[in-house]
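Hypothesis: this fold can be encoded by more than one sequence.
Test: take the structure tokens below, design a sequence, compare later.
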């Protein structure tokens, strides 16, 4: 709701939507609004202008879930045999750097 309220008063000359989306994500899992969803985003935002926030809330929630899935899939360990993880100590044996240097 904060995102909608901030963007609707247009406090900035430009980038009102971008700033309000950034503020919406502060302290919460990030809701990435994809370019492919832009028309739906505009539609649910317009509905919120008329007092109907349900579709905007659902849209942001779905975007958050999708974003979390992207993060989790990126962070999940690979199951490919060639993508085995090694420790920094093992890696340091293959280069000129100590494990402490690699850690930082």
């Amino acid at each position: 709701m904060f995102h909608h309220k901030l963007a609707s008063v247009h406090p900035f000359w430009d980038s009102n939507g971008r700033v309000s989306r950034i503020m919406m994500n502060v302290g919460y899992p990030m809701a990435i609004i994809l370019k492919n969803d832009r028309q739906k985003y505009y539609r649910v935002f317009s509905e919120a202008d008329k007092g109907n926030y349900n579709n905007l809330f659902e849209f942001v929630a779905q975007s958050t879930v999708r974003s979390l899935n992207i993060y989790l899939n990126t962070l999940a360990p690979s199951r490919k045999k060639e993508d085995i993880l090694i420790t920094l100590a093992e890696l340091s044996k293959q280069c000129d750097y100590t494990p402490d240097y690699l850690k930082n």
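The chain has a mean pLDDT of 86. The longest helix spans residues 54-75.
Hypothesis status: open.
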